[in-house]
Amino acid sequence: MNPTNIPPDGARASLLDRTLDQAQPSEQDYLEVLDLTVDFDGFKAVDGVKLTVTPGDLRFLIGPNGAGKTTIIDALTGLVPAKGTAQFAGRDLLGLPPHRIVRLGVGRTFQTASVIEGLTTLQNLDVAAGLHRSAWSRFRRRRDVPEEVTEVLETIGLADLADVPAGILAHGQKQWLEIGMLLVQRAQVLLLDEPVAGMSAAEREQTGQLLMRIGRKRVVVVVEHDMEFLRSFADSVTVLHQGKVLAEGGVAEVQANPAVIEVYLGAPAPAAAEQAGTTSAAKATPAARVAKPASAALPTQAKPAGREG
Amino acid sequence: MNRPRGVMGQLKRSGWLVGLAVAVVAVFLAPQLLDAFRLGLLAKYLCIAMVAVGIGLAWGQGGMLVLGQGLFFGLGGYMMAMHMKLDDAGPGGVPDFMNLYGNNMVPGWWEPFRSAGFTLAAIVLLPAMVAGLLGYAVFTRRVRGAYFAILSQALVAAFATWVESQQKTTGGFNGMTNFKGWFGFALNDPVNKQMLYYIAAFVLIAMVLIVRWLMRSRFGELLLAVRDQENRVRFLGYDPAWSKVIAYVVAAVFAAIGGALFVPIVGMINPKNVGVTPSILFLAGVVLGGRTTLLGPVLGTIAVRWAETGLSEAYPSIWQYFQGALFVLVIAFLAQGAASIGPGFKALWQRLRGSPRGAPPGGPAQAAGAAA
Asked: What is the DSSP letter of B294?
């Protein structure tokens, strides 16, 4: 039920890495967004955002509600029209229909886990993997489970639930399934919209480990409200506010940034902490910890040892 | 993974072969049990069931509410009728009704239908092309749901109106009737009538097998995904329009073949066979039988038509109330159609026994297929 079988290293890890490395993205393939603007009838949800994310740099996008985090993902995946430029591996993403963007290696998950509920876990992964099959092969029956699907089922810890309808999976399991679907569709850019919202602490930890593993050779951008999760797993952070980039850098650096503190806390000290607490309480994250300036002193030490390797 | 083992398992896995055997036996048994008139009626229902099989694929699996299958049924039927009329008239001859209404000239676009090969090819290819172009135009523009249903119905209304207006070349309101032969077989010969029944029966079985294959293929899984979460499928790298176009084209071709066989079996085709009302009634059996199942549309259609005939003979003035009551009952209590009774009981039984087993891949469709 739980992805406890994410192997630290060893035989299983090599199997997993083979799947994860299948896309073999080269070091030069990075996501570059320049002057991205999304205009909803005069309201600029995203306003001139610049964002460069390279493989191996687990990037978190944070910001208060309405900062434009999800809208950026929507724009990059063809869900909403946008101006500016967005390129992955030198190829333009803006203006393409969603399925063409996916075929360029850019995949996403959704805030409310959206898997194909009527299909089984296995079928969900198989459909996602089918993107790379020839059109004719789709008219054949699936005789056996493709190797990459088996591996990813193990990776996301859902091997035992391969044959149940995805609709009955728990919320966290659906999120893992969605990440698994990105893996089998060989996405090289993973845009994850609140992947750990509603997960238990143990599930968050497992998801974070998975993202670190995936992120080694892929561009991973995570929209997240959970500051503890961010401190544990982020390599770098981009803070958005009212559609603009407010700050960017390492976790400690950003958390010490006065502008970020002001946006998140509103005003100096205690009263503001409560305010921030109420705004993020709706997100069902450990809100109490979000705002406390004291916790800003907890930088990268929280990261598991050995991840730099 | 949860494959049933043992003898029962073997039976279950090869259930479709058992189902096929039962169907073939039933096909050969029917002429022994039914008189020529009833057998002719059954053959007619089988033609309607061909349309229903296609609707099951397009609507039940693909989520496209095809309310205008009369268009394709009519295309197939009229093309077959044109060939039969020209054939009856002999080489270079003029069909009788053109003599009556027109200037006794065969229009240029009729001429190719003197050829049997051209006619048969056109019956398949023309509806496929029409459905392909229409489907592509409509589905890539993301027209769906009620809008698609209204569009398909408007098209069939336009088609029926056009056919009716062209009395000189289509027979207009009266359509075409009084056919004598079908590819050289005299239609008044009872043996040939029985042959037509067998052809219809085996074509229908072939169509069911094609749909079964499509439903169990990866395409079937994708189509189901498109039906339930079309927008999500875009983010898996597919253009959902293509899956829908393919299902729509298959449904159109099935309807056209049904129409083409309807003409020699029933002996007529006119705008009343292809308009809005028959297009809606094509759905009746599909709804009652269970649109998401493999056999629901076929069995539902045969049952509905059979009941319709029986009730209209027994209660000529009120039989439509029975039909209405049946609809209300099915929609109120069996939204998935009659074919969901079996799997529904099975699920209930399993729940009572407390053995939580995953639903078979492919959902109720396969359960019904195996149960047959």
From this structure: S
